[in-house]
Amino acid sequence: EERARACLALGRIGGENAAARLIQALNDPAASVRAYAAFGLGLIGDRNWMARSEASSEAAQALGHVLQDGDRRVVTYAVEALGKMRWRRLGRAIANTPAPLAVTLTALVRMDDSRFVDWMTSATRSDDQDIRWAATVALEELQAPVTDDITRAYLRLAKDRNDFVRAAVARGLGRLEPQEN
Q1: Contacts from 121-127 at CB under 8 Å and sequence distance 24+?
Q2: DSSP H helical segments within the chain, as ranges?
Q3: Which end of the chain has less Cβ packing within 10 Å, N or C?
Q4: pLDDT on residue 16
């Protein structure tokens, strides 16, 4: 518990050795320590991105290895961290993890990775209303070109039971271009 909290503190405080120590902590036997080490690297990566600094390639590679971790929470925090770092090179890898789909969609949007528009569009068919909402929001955040598939998805979701899904769809439908007959 103390090591896990230390990782969280290192991520919040930062400093010149923080990332190196968090990378080491990704190998800790305790899943909670590995999870908070990944989370801490995400905090540092997000700050670096905001400051327009280069993301640490060493941190991104270490997080890429953690995507294979047996603990879902560790993988989820690694996906989130890679999204905060805007590390597009691992987009395909994070799309194939057991992390919650809403977290994965958010990471891909942060990466501004439009290679996954079709995948996001298919996620709008999910039985889970949170995934339908996250997929619709992701398509909007990416400003994905409104293709026939996306138009059909939006029209189908315009009747969704969830208010948030319908609101996200309304934003998307606002981008449709009028068709001439």
Answers
A1: 121/147, 121/149, 121/150, 121/153, 124/153, 124/156, 124/157, 125/153, 126/101
A2: 2-13, 18-25, 31-50, 57-66, 72-85, 91-95, 101-110, 117-123, 129-141, 148-157, 163-173
A3: C
A4: 80
Whether the CB-CB separation of 71 and 31 falls below 8 Å is answered with yes
Type of residue at 74: V
pTM of the model: 0.85
Alpha-carbon distance 142 to 103, whole Å? Answer: 15
For the stretch 26-85, pLDDT in tens is 999 999 999 999 999 999 988 777 666 666 788 999 999 999 999 999 999 999 999 999
Q: How far is CA 165 from CA 118, 129, 158, in A?
A: 18, 7, 8
Structure tokens at 81: 């961290």
**CA pair distance 27, 38, nearest whole angstrom:** 11
Residue 125 backbone phi and psi in degrees, to 5 = -90, 5
Name which of 9, 83, 97 is nearest 45 in CA terms. 83
d(CA 139, CA 45): 24
Residues 6 or more apart whose Cβ sits within 8 Å of residue 10: 18, 21, 22, 40
In whole angstroms, what is the distance from residue 59 CA to residue 55 CA? 8
**Neighbour count for residue 127 (Cβ, 10 Å):** 6
Burial of residue 45 (number of CB atoms within 10 Å: 0-12, 13-18, 19+): buried
